[in-house]
Amino acid sequence: MAESKTADVMDKIVSLCKRRGFIFQSSEIYGGINGFWDYGPLGVELRKNIRDCWWNDMVRRRDDVVGLESSIIMHPKVWEASGHVGGFTDPMVDCKVSKQRFRADQIFFAAVVVDGKTAGYVTVLESERIAEELQEKAETFKRKKAIQGKLEPVRPLDFTEATPEEIPQIPSPATGEPGSLTPPRAFNMMFETYVGALRDESAIAYLRPETAQGMFVDFKAVLDTGRVKVPFGIAQIGKSFRNEITPRNFIFRSREFEQMEMEYFISDDDDWARWHRYWIDWCRDWLVSVGIPASALSEYNHPKEKLAFYSKGTTDLMFSYPFGVQELWGIAARGDYDLTQHGKASGQPMEYFDDVKKKRYVPHVIEPAVGVDRILLAILCSAYCEDQAPDEKGKMETRIVMKFHPRIAPVKVAVFPLLKNKPELVKKAQEVRDLLRPYMTVFYDEAGAIGRRYRRQDEAGTPFCLTIDFDTLGEKGPELADTVTLRERDTMKQERVKISELLPKLLEKVR
Ligand code: ATP
After folding, report:
1. In this predicted structure, what is the pLDDT of residue 6?
2. Hey, which residues does 498 pair with through a beta bridge?
3. Which of 47, 50, 253 for a ligand 1 pocket mutation test, highest count of atoms within 8 Å of Cβ?
4. 3-state DSSP call for residue 492?
5. Cα separation of 28 and 291, whole Å?
6. pTM, whole model, 2 decimals?
7. On the chain, which terminus has fewer CB atoms closer than 10 Å, C or N?
8. pLDDT tens digit sequence for 386-431
9. Residue 39 C-alpha to ligand 1 middle, in angstroms?
10. Which residue from 257, 263, 292, 300 has its CB within 8 A of the most atoms of ligand 1, so it is best to mutate?
11. Using CA positions, which residue lies closest to atom 25 of ligand 1?
12. 156 half-sphere exposure, CB direction, 13 A CA radius
């Protein structure tokens, strides 16, 4: 990541996103709505580029993956069979005094043990420094209560591990006082709605909490198109909805978000671990190809004892966000669980006939599942950079620059006439804009000093700027006629390029 990352970098990114039109709070004029976000003019382009890159690499450039777009609202039985109605829950805790809600697995507590005896409890919310913060709080607790003796090192636990005797003694993260936290209870995160005119039990349906079930439910339909043979994948991009208890960290955890998921079906006797590894590596390489540095990525293998009974293994690709190392992309080996469940519940076996091995079986699946918004945030964090650059008068100033990979940058090239009141310059600049526009996103700007126009594009992450000046018109001699200044965002280096050579030169860089 760029070197200027500091603790407040998240605030700077949020403020830049608003200022430059990447991301706004949803319904802001009414005070906003927690967990929902709007993407502004630059944000939609960035999002679209992420989606398009993934779709091209995952579907169009492969022979073994096909696409799907299933409906957001599906038959409610889908979610019963998949286990979401019964089990798609997070443990929720209420603070009866402050009326705040928490996810139990995000509250951490520890006993304050002095000379082998528990003197009380301390609490913190999930952070990068849970153990250190609990230790500091335990020391303060001991000092304030003037307890004599030796404080033992704290042993952090999350609230789901608290015993019924401990719960009343654990301080609420909201008030700092014990006695107000309820025991955790399961909260189903699916959004409910009603289909049709009746508002009774029989009309209840759900907004999908993941896109994956569409691929399982349509497995047979895709198979019957005859284009696919195991091993093959079905990929989908689309909105998902989860009524998260604590949406937070900007767009990292939202209630409405977009997923890009792919179900890769393999034979029941194939080496699942090899395919699992293959897709972990594919996902990592893809992230690097859109500008996320490999050094900011790591892998987390879910411990065997925490996996669902059907799961063979899950590895998360983690990204080092400014608020901590967090899950970006989950790659799960789910066995034949989902297809078997839908086969049983629908009465239509989800089987595949292998005409080489002459046998029928339920395929196993490897599932790489990622959120567009989490990738977008990782890209924003990776791209954000502050450096020093000369202003109009040559004095050094801090420059904010979004170093997006040209493949992903919302605007690929900005075109400026040096002066807006010189019709010849404006005409030429508009010709250059029109030449490039069919092939890439071009931003035309004639307002303000040229240095300020460059700065605006640096903040938008535009990799190239073109300036049309009097040399372009041939005023300094024929050798510079019909050339423009091409300025590169990261190095700020400028070169003269012939207009006739612009298109191939830029296309090579942005594709
Ligand atoms: P988490 O543990 O962070 O809640 P998860 O393990 O429940 O995530 P999955 O169900 O595996 O997530 O979803 C696949 C991917 O979808 C995640 O890796 C993440 O990129 C994205 N995702 C999941 N929940 C959200 C959310 N609330 N907001 C934004 N993206 C999300």
Report:
1. 52
2. 483
3. 253
4. coil
5. 31
6. 0.92
7. C
8. 999 888 788 899 999 999 999 999 999 999 999 999 999 999 999 9
9. 19
10. 257
11. 253
12. 20
